[in-house]
Write a structure and sequence with these properties.
The chain is an alpha+beta fold and 113 residues long. It has one domain. 38% of the residues lie in helices and 16% in strands. It has five helices and two strands. The protein has a two-stranded antiparallel ribbon. A hairpin with a 5-residue loop joins strand 1 and strand 2. The longest helix is centred in the middle third of the chain and has 10 residues. The radius of gyration is 14 Å and the shape is elongated.
């Protein structure tokens, strides 16, 4: 159940994939609370098994007590937006938002949005 809208969010893989449709990247530390998953790496592996492709980018973020923590940021590749949309049953391409970072805007442009 989506606590914001009060609507069902479907299966876990659909919820995770939907979060990537705005072109943003996610890593395990933010995905835990925001996407209700403790195994983002495994979720990504399952989505890749469905034919989707993700960038895997090493990053360092503040962790426990602000200490630097190494993570992997995942971002849905532009060529996968069409398949992702088909799997979710939604219109093609990423959902452009005002909050998109520069890289996300480039991905949206590459996907033809």
């Amino acid at each position: 159940m989506n606590t914001t809208t009060g609507k069902s969010t479907g299966r876990k893989w659909q919820r995770i994939l939907s979060a990537f449709m705005d072109g943003e990247s996610w890593h395990a530390l933010i995905a835990g609370a925001a996407l209700n998953t403790t195994c983002l790496h495994s979720d990504i592996s399952g989505l890749e098994a469905r034919g989707l492709r993700f960038d895997h980018t090493p990053a360092t973020v503040p962790g426990f007590c602000g200490e630097p923590t190494r993570v992997v940021r995942y971002r849905l590749r532009p060529e996968s937006f069409t398949l992702a949309s088909q799997l979710l049953g939604t219109p093609n391409g990423p959902r452009p938002t005002a909050e998109m970072d520069a890289t996300a805007r480039e991905y949206a442009k590459a996907a033809g949005v």
